[in-house]
Known about the structure:
Elements: E1 17-21, E2 29-35, E3 38-48, E4 61-68, H1 87-101, E5 112-122, H2 127-148, E6 161-169, E7 172-175, H3 179-184, E8 187-194, E9 199-206, H4 213-238
Parallel strand pairs: 4-5
Antiparallel strand pairs: 1-2, 2-3, 3-5, 6-7, 6-8, 8-9
Helix pairs in contact: 1-2, 2-4
Amino acid sequence: MPNQRLDGRSSRAIRPLSFTRNWLPSAKGSVLxxxxxxxxxxxxxxQDGVPPFLKNSDQGWLTAEYSMLPASTGDRRKRDRSGHxxxxxVEIQRLIGRSLRAIVNRKGFPGRTxxxxxxxxxxxxxxxxxxxxxxxVALHDALSQLKEHGSLKFWPLQDSVRAISVGMVxxxxxxxxxxxxxxxxxxxxxxxxxxxxxxxxxxxGAERGTFTQEQMMAMLEHAQxxxxxxxxxxxxxxSQ
Length: 240
């Protein structure tokens, strides 16, 4: 019989997920993501200009930054300073940027850079997946504003993007791990896909011992339920 999760969820269920759009009036796209007790503020700002390697090209650029506020984990975290961003934050912000660029045709906004910032207000596991999910909604809103003002050559979003964590705890596959579950996990994995089901990234590994290919396939299969639930929540938020 499966072990009971602390919050009463089934093994395939995600935590309550919501996207509060237009959270900041100063940003073209701003979304507060609540995924269980994890909260992330995602913003998308558009600036004129592109990095030097794209000068005189017909493309724009999209990049992301990620940070955790000092009180997001209970014990105070040191702030990321310029030139002193910790390795984990660098890894996650690169993942967010790659995930968004995978679904964007940057020729739709030539000469402009879209900055996506994900700031973790409260962390209870799954901050990188919550950030990707909210970043997509914020990016969609920012591009919609550009479209309203006639500032796009064409609609650049070619698909949606969604992400979920999955792992094994006491030999049971669980979707969308909380911090407690993640800290006990034998295997911890993150899956990022497009809305059409194409894979952008699979990352993870064994925390204790090893796992079989059959267990890996079981985790990927369980994750599909979580990804579907995330996509439904994104679509519901964007339809409002």
